[in-house]
Amino acid sequence: MSFAGEASSDVPTLPGTHSGIPAYLLEKARNAKGDVFDGRTKPIKDRQRLPVVPQGIERDDFLAALAELKVQIGNENVEINDKPLKDGWYMEHPNTHDMMTILDEEELVASAVVYPSSTEEVQDIVKWANKHRVPIFPISMGRNLGYGGAAPRVRGSVTVDLGKRMNKILDINPEDYTCLVEPGVSFYALYDAIQEKGYHHLWIDTPDLGGGSVIGNTVDRGVGYTPYGDHWACHSGLEVVLPTGEVIRTGMGALPGNNTWQSFPYGFGPYSDGIFSQSNYGIVTKMGMTLMPNPGGYESFMYTFPNEEDLAPLMEIIRPLRISMILENVAQLRHVTQSVAARGLPRSQFYSGTGPIPPDVIHAAAASAPVGDHTWAYYGMAYGPAHIRAHKLALVDAEFRKIAGARKVDPATLPADEYYFSRDRVAAGVPDIHELRWVNWAPNGAHIAFSPVSPIRGTDATRLFALGKRLHDAYGIDFFPAFCVGLREMHLIVEIVFDRDDAERKQAALDCLRDMIDEAAAMGYGEYRTHLVLMDQVAATYSWNDNALMKFNEKLKDALDPNGILAPGRCGIWPKRYRGRGWEMTRESGAASEGDGVGPAPEAKCDQGEFSGASHPYP
Ligand code: EUG
Fold it and tell me: Above pLDDT 90, what percent of the chain?
């Protein structure tokens, strides 16, 4: 088949490839790759394509502008996207489109990709974009899987792939427990570098999968699973290229000669960092990150609970333990359906019917697995020397056993490739690749997340669970809820796994997501992060006081990016030139990712004697 060529090459490795796998995971990555391609039937559309040209510029002008960019950045560092779109897989992911697209695969595509090697070149690219009014979309590494991957929101944007050539670890400070990284440093690479230096007293915090960019994940406010799991809270200091080409350093970085950029995040005056997370206000080219001290010991624990109704009392038990840090890390409470899928086998091995997989099938599958049957599985970790752990573990044990049928799983009874050990590594800051496995649940498996935030409360957990379950059942989708428990809130992560070669299933997934977002918002719940396709809808749910927050965001956008060139539409923030022209993607707009042209840029407006009132005002 046409994807055979893709499957045949080996897995790229660190340090030769910045986005590669570390040696200790190579065998696992090879197996994961085999599983992904075993389940693949989607052919590559074998056609040559003219590059998509972004709206607001003529094709010839666009091609001339790209030629100019090649002179500036180097011929080999500007690639026109005119080849067939290859989805690849996690370790060999495309930077031209969303490898897990829920739309037609030609919707969220780049026209070209440019690879800067320095902050100065990023500034050059930004100035070029302003000159030619070309939308650019920066990615660190493009592994924002489940949220759009590497794809730009505006079709035909020029993707600025920062990571390929800007992938240096600029500093690891073993006394202050901090580091300074560029966008192309993955959690794998940071972990590897720390081991290489023999700094065993330094821990990093990693998400479920370690291939993502430390900067990319942090500025999208991603989460890991040690006590340093709130990545944004743990960063200190940014270097940012603004949409008009200036470069700033935030916090102490603004003080020449400082030695506190990575230890005191706030500096003096307004704390600007926030506006550079989940936004389109700047391109982060350096970021400081705090590192955790090795706690001197750690011990994972796993409890299972038999019934769906155990969720509410369990949350009431978890909340005080978590807030008082007896439960120390961002733990996961996972539903049995996802536990079964995490074995990595396709759903067809368990069930051949359509519609959601029946509970008795899931429970039978769970019963035959090493962990045994359950409905909820809690994965946590205690940190510190043995006597300190023993104290915390005893408190947790006494509380969790108040749920009838609670069972503590003995790790000695589990085989080495059991999911438990992946959670164990991740909670100890060791990046893994295991989490990919449940994506094989569907052929041509892809995933997209619904990620609402709630307090750690039984009533909230139950309401969100019931909402998700009802809508998944209605659309015939298997329900994979996992609660990631932060300090005073939870991110409920519901990943919908779908066959990305099945238009009907993609539409069902999208409809289900749109219903969940609307219904959750009506109940007072909002998403902490979302996919490109859902950003307008999610942003519109944060509407208090007549959309006051979005009006403020737009004011900032227009002030910082008057030509509207930087990641238009990201997180629902549209520059003035795009507003009122149907660029928003909503249920009503269907699957079209493009709007009806762009307005004149401010300077052009004056030059051409046009007035702002002539185009569509903001509604
Ligand atoms: C996961 C966790 C996330 C997220 C997407 C996926 C992991 C799934 C805590 O945040 O946003 C098992």
Answer: 92
For residue 111, give the nearest of 86, 142, 136 by alpha carbon.
136
What angle, rounded to 10 degrees, do the helices at 311-323 and 458-475 form?
130
pLDDT in tens, 2-41: 344 455 559 999 999 999 999 999 999 999 999 999 989 9
* Whether the bond into 356 is cis, omega within 30 of 0: no
Is the CB–ligand 1 distance for residue 229 below 6 Å? no
Rounded mean pLDDT of 540-547?
Answer: 98
CATH 3.30.43.10 residue spans of the chain: 2-161
170 alpha carbon – ligand 1 mean position (Å): 28
The CATH number of 2-161, from 3.50.50.60, 2.60.120.10, 3.30.43.10, 3.40.50.720, is 3.30.43.10
Cβ of residue 430 lying under 6 Å from some atom of ligand 1 = no
Residue 451 CB–ligand 1 contact under 6 Å: yes
| Ligand 1: centre distance to CA 47 (Å) | 35
> Given the CA of residue 451, which atom of ligand 1 is nearest to it?
11
Handedness of CA 527, 530, 533, 535 (dihedral sign): positive
Q: Please classify residue 477 by burial: count the beta carbons closer than 10 Å to its beta carbon, then call 0-12 exposed, 13-18 middle and 19+ buried.
A: buried
Q: How far is the CA of 534 from the centre of ligand 1 (A)?
A: 16
Beta strands in 93-155 (DSSP E): 112-114, 136-139
- Within its chain, how far is the Cα of 556 from the centroid? 24
- 534 burial (CB, 10 Å; 0-12 / 13-18 / 19+) is buried
Determine whether the shortest distance from the Cβ of 214 to ligand 1 is under 6 A.
Answer: no
Question: Cβ(146) to ligand 1 under 6 A?
Answer: yes
- Closest residue by CA, ligand 1 atom 8: 493
CATH number of 300-534: 3.40.462.10
pLDDT in tens, 320-330: 999 999 999 99
496-504: average pLDDT: 97
What sections of 523-597 are H helices per DSSP? 535-541, 544-560
